Amino acid sequence: MTSTSTNLDYDETQAALFGMRQQDDRSKFLKALTGIKGFATGYPMGMVGAVVMLILVAMAVIPQLFTPLAVQKSSSIIGIHISDRFETPSWDFWFGTNALGRDMYGRLVYGARTAIMIGFGAVILAKLLSTVIGTVSAFFGGWVDNALQRVVEMVQAIPTLVFLILFVVMLEPRLPDIGPLSSDMLVILLVVAVHSGFVSSRTVRGVALSLREETYVEAAQALGASDSRIMLRHIVPNLIAYVIVSASLFVGAAVLLESSLSFLGYGVQPPAPSWGRELNEAREELARYPHLAFFPGLFIFATVWSFNMFGDALRDRLDPRLRGST
Amino acid sequence: MQRYIIRRVVLMIPTMLGTTFLVFAMMRLMPGDFTDFLGGDFGALDAETKALIQAEFGLDQNWATQYIGWIGDLLRGDFGVSVYSGRPISGDLLQRLPITLELGIFAMAINLIIGIPIGIISAVRQFSWYDYTGRAGAIALLAVPNFWIALLAISLAGKYALWAVPSPTYPGLFEDPIANLKFMAFPALLTGAAGAGYQMRFGRTAMLEVMRQDYIRTAWSKGLQERAVILKHGLRNALIPIVTVIGLFLPALIGGTVVIETIYSIPGMGRYFIHALNGRDLFIVQALAVIFTMVVIVSNFLVDIAYSILNPRIRYS
Fold this sequence. Notes:
The structure holds two protein chains of two kinds.
Chain A: H1 5-42, H2 44-61, H3 69-74, H4 104-140, H5 142-157, H6 160-171, H7 183-212, H8 215-222, H9 227-264, H10 275-282, H11 291-318
Chain B: H1 2-29, H2 34-40, H3 47-56, H4 63-75, H5 89-124, H6 129-143, H7 146-160, H8 177-211, H9 214-221, H10 226-264, H11 269-278, H12 282-310
């Protein structure tokens, strides 16, 4: 680089700026670290939940990390291996093998991807939907509110599992496969999201109703802001904390619904690995091989538990007023 | 009060119509109908025969005629017939409804018996060991899939004969009450425990909220016994939100019976529903969905009424 005197100035400024930014980055990192430390000391169980949660997410993203070579070599998680049927847990098959000779440990690790994909997808969609419905319903009031609330009541009146099963059966063959989501996973994701979106829009509406009465909304209206601007700039940002907390608490519920559906046979279709499905298949040989039922349930439990623990602590941290509410 | 009740009843009508139409439409949009299953085992039915069978059940008419006809029948108490057996559905319902009702009532009782006292103790002794154990237990209950526990219990019972293996057939409540209770106890416990976690958490929050009120401080300072403060002044006021949770729990409870009835082979409404749906026995599915929904709507109505009795401010808003 050629540097004249003027350039030197420039370079120095750049360097100073760069150094400052670097320092800023480091202090941000330190801040985040102390934040995590504060969270861990204040909410030890929440931290345990967060660690288990991260392990499960890592399983979903890079399952290869969790299946050692011995397991990968001994048996594949898909395909039929008649000579390896119903192995009891051993060094080669940590959790044993199922009726088709598939390694259970491997299938459960890969099942994390199914559960996490559906759980996260459903939660994101559900929260978007409930925020839109709740905000629109609260902001416009009148007939819009009335019509939306009747629909919400309808969805709420049909027992959850009955609603989900009917929609899954109706929609499943009509949906395409999208990337890693096969149509059977996609349908669960959508149906769980729509159901929860409507049901939980009720509470969002309640919060948005109180926000609508705030003076800053009145001020924005007086300044001639449009409806969409008021909703997007003044109401939704103030809902975010509430939505994040309820989202973190809903992941567990979504995973539980997915495994219930799969357990009943309406969920994830074979040969894709799913914890609920695995439990369903374990029913056939329950008397002889109870370990086939033990491990999938343990994974479901660990997932739901860790997300709930983390969500609970997060709620207490972000909004102490909500402490202990469900 | 009268006006409030009338308004609530009128509001139930659009919800009822909406849900019935939703279920009605879904059954007709579902891929495959019962004629496919009828023909399935013996080679496909030809289109003419299919149309003939469908016409026999009035499925060739347009949706409006079918829907209005169905609602009319429902209002007269006629649920239609099973497309397979030709038997009127009301007869089957009479057999199955009491079984699910028994399961549901036991489950609800267990839910309240576990949930409310623990929630209250947790709130009254906040930040004590009772509280921490109670809250951890509540979160564990929320996270445990009850069908998993059911499977483990069955397998352990089978392996070690720890307690009676569920009998393959359902013993009637009135023919053999003891065998019936033995049969139902564990399924009811599992169905009820699933919601007990929510009950505990709601109960705790409600009670905490109440115990911070001024009138509780007054009750303490005028020297009342702890028992009186907690039960008479605290619990009575905490009951209002607790009653609402009972209403919210119902849709989940009915879903829970579907799963538990399937595992334990209990011949109730839930298993009937799954069985009928898998065979696309559409009139049965419609009838059951209507009954489930009715149960939820009517009990929400009752909860609202109870709520307005407990809390007079609601009536005038």
